[in-house]
Structure formats: structure tokens, C-alpha cells
Design goal:
The protein has 265 residues and is α+β, with helices and mostly antiparallel strands. The chain starts with a helix and ends in an 11-residue tail after the last helix.
Length: 265
């Protein structure tokens, strides 16, 4: 019984001694994180007013958010009684170990800094990265998010971005569609080319130029493949692509252009 009474006494003493600190630490943690979020939002708004570019703003916003939350957690830990200097040493050791295990993440982080400051593309640009085409939605610490014309969201690690060729279509302000149609060998290519050219002249949102890229790309066993490459605004990609195919089909019908198909069909 004496042992049990001693345990109860020690537990009571421990509770009396540490319970207020634990409660205070929890309160500090909850309130501190709330304040950190508010301060983070205030700093982000201040950065917006200072005319910092969107890419750097997004990048700095992520770092500010992480730093503020770590500061709150360390302060709460110090209230409980942890030595902050020891925690820093522990965090440094853990960081080193994690860094060795997650070298890819550190590479993505370094690449993120490179992208933000060298600016091979900006938010809103149409790019092709690792053979993936889309609009840049965000540039984060570790990855870049792009949205494809068919509304798929692609999250590409920044390390993969800087290790590959980046094609920025928004630098020139326009992009060429690559459309393909077929015609039989018996049809006249100059006539078909004229029909397609006139169709492109009448297609809304196709950037008009003196000469469209229209030519024979391949000779198949049953037909000739024609490539059509009009200039368009990247934002109009799918709309113009579908509209152009529809108009070409209608123009072929009106001008009695024969459509190629395999024998026996």
C-alpha cells in the first residue's frame, strides 16, 4: 500500500507541477497557430502591395507559413520545459538525417528557387514540360502545378522541370495547333489545300497570317496524311481545335472532297 500511495503522491505532484504548463502550452499552440495564420496573411498582402511577382509571392508565402508555425511550436515546447537549444540541435540532426534520405526533395527545393528567380515561366503561361502541355497554375517550393487543356491537373516536381527542356508558348503569345486530315490518292492536293486555307480564313480565333502551314506529312497504304498548323491563342486551344475540325469536315462535304478510308470498309 505504501508503494501505491507513493505512486499516487508522485503522480499528484507531477500533475500539479506540469499540468498548468501543459495547458498553457496547448493554449499557446492553438492561439499561436491562429495568430501565425493571420500574420502570414498580413505579410502576404503586404508583399502583394509591394508589387512582387506572383511566382516569388507564392514561394515566399510557403516559406513564411512554415517558419511561423515552427516558431509557435518551439515556443509552446519551451513553456512545457524543453530546452529550445536542445530542440534546435535535435531539429538540425533530424533535418540532416531526413535530408540525406530525401535528397530528391532538397533537389526540388533548389530547383524551385531557380525557377522563381530565373523565371523560365510565370503563373498563367502555357508551357510544355516533360512532354506535358498545359497552363502554369502555381509554382510551389517543391513542385509546379499545370492544368492541361482537357482540365487535368499535373503536379510536376521542380527537379524534373529544371532537368528537362522547357517550352514556353506564352513568350511568343501564340501556339500552333497540329491537326491531321486524310485524303485519297485520287484527290487533288492543291484543291484540298485551297479548301482548307479558305476554311481557316473563316474560322474565328485562328490568327490570320499570309501563309498557313498546310502540307503533306505522310503517304499511307490507302491515303495521304495532311498536316494543318494554324496559329492560335493558347487559351483557345480546345475550342479552336474542335471548331476547326468541324469546319473542315463541312467544307469537304460542300466542295465534294473525297474522304480517305481503308478498302473493304
Amino acid at each position: 500500500m505504501e508503494k501505491y500511495e507513493k505512486y499516487i503522491t508522485d503522480l499528484t505532484d507531477w500533475t500539479i507541477r506540469f499540468a498548468p504548463k501543459v495547458i498553457a502550452a496547448v493554449i499557446v499552440l492553438v492561439v499561436g497557430l491562429w495568430i501565425a495564420n493571420r500574420v502570414g496573411e498580413f505579410l502576404k498582402k503586404s508583399l502583394v502591395k509591394s508589387n512582387i511577382s506572383t511566382e516569388i509571392l507564392s514561394f515566399l508565402g510557403s516559406i513564411i507559413d512554415i517558419v511561423l508555425k515552427i516558431a509557435v511550436i518551439l515556443f509552446a515546447a519551451s513553456i512545457v520545459g524543453f530546452e529550445v537549444s536542445s530542440l534546435f540541435a535535435l531539429i538540425a540532426a533530424i533535418g540532416f538525417a531526413v535530408g540525406m534520405a530525401l535528397q530528391g526533395f532538397l533537389g526540388n527545393f533548389a530547383s524551385g528557387i531557380t525557377i522563381v528567380f530565373l523565371k523560365p515561366y510565370r503563373i498563367g503561361d502555357w508551357v510544355e514540360i516533360s512532354e506535358k502541355f498545359g497552363k502554369v497554375e502555381s509554382i510551389q517550393i517543391f513542385n509546379t502545378t499545370i492544368e492541361t487543356p482537357n482540365q487535368k491537373t499535373l503536379i510536376i516536381p521542380n527537379g524534373q522541370v529544371t532537368d528537362n527542356i522547357i517550352t514556353n508558348f506564352s513568350t511568343k503569345g501564340s501556339v500552333r495547333l497540329e491537326l491531321k486530315v486524310t485524303m485519297p490518292y485520287s484527290e487533288s492536293f492543291p484543291r484540298v489545300k485551297e479548301v482548307i486555307t479558305q476554311t481557316l480564313r473563316e474560322t474565328p480565333k485562328v490568327i490570320q497570317e499570309d501563309k498557313f502551314f498546310i502540307g503533306i506529312e505522310d503517304y499511307d497504304s490507302h491515303n495521304i496524311t495532311i498536316t494543318i498548323r494554324p496559329l492560335i491563342n493558347p487559351d483557345d486551344f480546345w475550342e479552336v481545335k474542335l471548331d476547326t475540325y468541324e469546319r473542315i469536315k463541312s467544307a469537304f462535304h460542300k466542295n465534294d472532297v473525297k474522304v480517305a478510308y481503308s478498302e473493304g470498309v
